[in-house]
Amino acid sequence: MSRPVKDGTGRPRQRRDGLVVQPLPEETLVYDLERHKAHCLEAVAAAVWEACDGRRSVEEIAARAAKRVGRRVPEEAVWLALRRLGRARLLEAPVAVPAPRGGTSRREWMKTAAMLGGLSVLSISAPTAAQAATCIAVTACEALQNRLCPGAPCCTTGPNPAPPGTVCKKVGNQNNCSCAP
Amino acid sequence: MGPGHEAWGRRVARVLRGAWRARPDHQGLDAADLFEASPLLLRGGSAGLAWWRAQASSVPSPVLKPLHDGFAIHALHAAVLEAKIPAAFVRLRARGIEPLLGKGWAVARLYPRPGLRPYGDIDVYVRPEEGPAARTALDPPGGEALPVDLHGGAAELDDRRLEDVIARSRRVRLGDADVRVFGPEDHLRLLALHLMRHGAWRPVWLCDLALILETLPPDFDWACFMSGAGARTDAAVCALRLAHEILGASLERVPARIRRRPLPRWLVPTVLRQWGDGRFEPHGTRTPLAVELGRPRGLLRALRARWPNAIEATVGRRARFDGFPRLPFQIGECFARTLRFARSRSALAAPPER
User: Fold this and answer.
1) Closest CA to A134 of B279, B120, B38, B106
2) Is residue A37 in a domain?
3) Domain containing residue A140
4) CA distance A137 to chain B (A)
5) At the N or C end, where does chain A have fewer CB atoms within 10 A?
6) Does the CB of A154 have a partner CB in chain B at under 8 Å?
């Protein structure tokens, strides 16, 4: 899949296709079904992401995010969140962060923004066998991408029973998990 | 399994005390317990609950990180499965089948957050005679199969009239859809008996019971919960008492008959040893017996992997949970399983009837 071009409009749009989103009070969890990555968006990053409808400017996004998190969100913080969301491929196109004003370096500018907190877009790793449920159905296992293979036993009952003794795991170079011994 | 396993299991139990509550008390939570028990918590699907209890504590974030990641993965996996439940109901209702949901989502929905209680598939219960049609609806030729574990009948509740169980079932909302779940009395009994039948190996199953005990609806009918085969009722009662003894679940709203049921001395250590055994292979993950028997020392390995714990053996032999030694039941259960295996092998080997 080719990398989308940078958004030059300054009105970023949230990506919607191929994502599973689980909003929670303190964070928003996102699973990218195409790239097979799970992300955890902290409060401000989640509020910025939610506000990216392709019509709002960064200034408007900052105002909306501030309303949602209940504290001031400066534009620098929005730019930093947008950069992180773009890198995580959670925007339709990554944004081009403008040069800072007032003689400060971009690095210092971003550092100041990062100190505000709540901006992290963390990638989540699947701990070994984290999903050890009683068993995982073959279809559910095969729907998971190989980074998320839970190591849980595959169900030997149900409409599509797995061979006994198999677990949901990464097999060879396949993109998806498989039920294998 | 030995006393070492019991100590590990006790760590898991200490971490999970009260973890199912909306505001769990993190006082008394030991970071060392949490760190050391993490592999067992992750393996048993209790990582989310451990994180939920520990998140407001002073436990260092590197200790919490893998538990939080476990929770997040469970939450996303639950979101994927949850989205498929209405489709299962639509497909079954189109064939005139009204299914019941049990275990999995039906109990996970009661927790304060999605992801705290993981589940691997959607447990759907239909009348036995509806099984074949339901199977076709859920896994149509050439169509998308849904991740459903289909049960013909009500499994552990087959000592009750299925029509009564269905009559007590309730409709609940799932997004824009209406789905049907077991009535609370039937569901608590089902969960308790399922836990005991599988030797209580997953801590999260006991958390399920603890959660339900503390959030009972005001009209919960204990007489209904207790009705059915005597040995099963006894097993279900012991399961509730275990939730209190091991996890500190409140029995405030539980009848005195259950509160006063003494547990045999072997029961709590059996559960803790099971929880502390990091090498335990649950049913479905073991190397098939037929394969093991073809290998040198395979019989010994197979026997060790399949040796029933005292709880499984008691349930399997339909015995009472009393103070008598469990070894005879374990030997009996092992013998019964071997017999079942031999019968299934001979049935497969028999020439087809003409």
Assistant:
1) B120
2) yes
3) 128-181
4) 5
5) N
6) yes
- Domain tally for chain A? 2
CB contact under 8 A, B120 and A21: no
Interface of A with B in 24-83 (CB under 8 A): 24, 29-31, 38, 40
d(CA B130, nearest CA chain A) in Å: 14
pLDDT category, A132, cuts 50, 70, 90?
A: very low
Q: How far is A107 from chain B (nearest CA, A)?
A: 26
A12 domain residue, yes or no: no
Last residue of a domain, one of A125, A140, A172: A125
Query: H or E stretch including B313?
Result: helix B310-316
Q: Long-range contacts of range B28-36, CB-CB < 8 Å, 24 or more positions apart?
A: B29/B53, B29/B54, B29/B57, B29/B59, B31/B57, B31/B58, B31/B59, B31/B60, B31/B63, B34/B59, B34/B63, B34/B64, B34/B67, B35/B63, B36/B8, B36/B11
List the structure tokens of B278: 């990091």
Q: Is residue A4 part of a domain?
A: no
* Cβ-Cβ contacts under 8 Å, A137 against chain B: 120-122, 147-149
Does residue A148 lie within any of the structural domains? yes
Q: How far is B4 from chain A (nearest CA, A)?
A: 22
Q: Please report, in angstroms and rounded to a whole number, the separation of the first and last CA atoms in chain B.
A: 50
pLDDT, tens digit, 9 for 90 and up, residues A75-120 = 888 988 998 899 899 999 988 877 766 666 767 776 766 666 667 7
User: Cβ separation of A130 and B74 shorter than 8 Å?
Assistant: yes
Q: Say how far apart CA A51 and CA A112 lie, in whole Å.
A: 22
B101-160 per-position pLDDT tens digit: 999 999 999 999 989 999 988 999 999 999 999 999 998 888 888 889 999 998 899 999
ipTM above 0.90, yes or no: no
- Distance spanning both ends of chain A, measured CA to CA: 32
Residue A161 and residue A98 share a domain: no
Single out the residue of B205, B204, B214 nearest to residue B52, CA to CA: B204
Question: Quick one: A94 and A155 in the same domain?
Answer: no
Q: A24 and A103: one domain?
A: yes
A20/B120 Cβ within 8 A? no
Q: Which residues of A touch B72 (CB under 8 A)?
A: 29, 38, 40, 124
Are A177 and A143 in a shared domain?
yes
